[in-house]
Write a structure and sequence with these properties.
- The structure is a homodimer.
- Chain A contains 6 helices and 6 strands, in the order ααβααββββαβα.
- Chain A is α+β, with helices and mostly antiparallel strands.
- Chain A folds into 2 domains: about 80 residues, Arc Repressor Mutant, subunit A (Orthogonal Bundle), CATH 1.10.10; about 55 residues, Dna Ligase, domain 1.
- A 3-stranded antiparallel sheet of chain A has the order 1-3-2. In chain A, strands 5-4-6 form a 3-stranded mixed sheet.
- Chains A and B meet through strand 2, strand 4, helix 5 and strand 6 of A and strand 2, strand 4, helix 5 and strand 6 of B.
- Strand 6 of chain A pairs antiparallel with strand 6 of chain B, so a sheet runs across the interface.
- Chain A binds a DNA duplex through helix 2 and helix 4.
Chain lengths: ~140, ~140
DNA sequence: ATCAGTGCAAACCATTTGCACGCGA
DNA sequence: TCGCGTGCAAATGGTTTGCACTGAT
């Protein structure tokens, strides 16, 4: 709504706004969920807008590189979410059920960024994920 | 720093202590780095202790399930580290030359871990990488 | 002696890529 | 029109699995 239109952001980087890219972003826009490439492909198919799986992958990759979406790696593959700079956050990832929970952004992260700057690094992005077992999986785990 | 012996931990869960498992753990023990299955396989091969890649995968999986090692998913695959390893550090990764620079462990990271605990999460491991361009690559980049 | 663990090769599955055609600017 | 973007199919690469053999207890 108040953030720059997708088309603008793409054009600024020299990319075209295609139907497929629009559809993918609409999808990530609507849902606050994190979706895999396959999820997106499936669901678009059910909306009668069949776009190829390759294209979904290609565009998720592009959108990730541009910084419009964020990629989260899981043992079974990656999931994606829309990035909003204002609401930057990180994740807890359950190694059993792969549930992903957001944790609040913590200003102390800046300590790391400062070190990066001191090392002469131009920071482009960063990833931070905590892996573990969620409460319910831990319960199952202890009883097996 | 005497933690339970590997053999004991395995036996407690009904698993055997095999040469291969011992070798893999020795490896993770020694190195403070996080290694991929392939890394471990390669390096063991160079030590004249050739164990099959499948076995490395199978055992890393087992050790992860038992909670002896932590698995970290990255887009290019998984890396593993010893769980008790509190003294690990994080990295700056140059997106151009792929140079990796270590940065010191920062106690503020505990703030995140605390949040994980509050969410009922059993922390097994975490991943934190800063992506950017190193000083020399930035120079080249600006002149291309 | 038994059965979990191993090696090998083949299978799997998410993701990437080469190529020819189609569509956005 | 021009060249990026797409679809298709085939390739890739990390990881898993079926099977027969080996080794730890």
């Amino acid at each position: 709504m108040t953030k720059p239109k997708l088309g603008i952001q793409l054009k600024a980087k020299g990319y075209k706004l295609t139907q497929q890219r629009q559809q993918i972003m609409n999808f990530l826009q609507d849902s606050s969920l994190r979706l895999s490439a396959q999820d997106i492909h499936q669901q678009l198919k059910q909306q009668n807008s069949a776009i190829s799986l390759d294209t979904v992958y290609r565009n998720l990759r592009l959108l990730t590189e541009i910084g419009i979406v964020g990629q989260i790696s899981l043992p079974s593959g990656s999931v994606y979410e829309r990035v909003e700079d204002q609401e930057h956050h990180h994740h807890l990832v359950c190694v059993d059920c792969e549930k992903v929970v957001c944790i609040a952004y913590c200003p102390e992260m800046k300590t790391y960024m400062a070190q990066a700057g001191a090392a002469g690094f131009d920071v482009i992005g960063h990833s931070f994920e905590i892996y573990g077992r969620c409460a319910s999986c831990r319960h199952k785990y202890l009883h097996s």
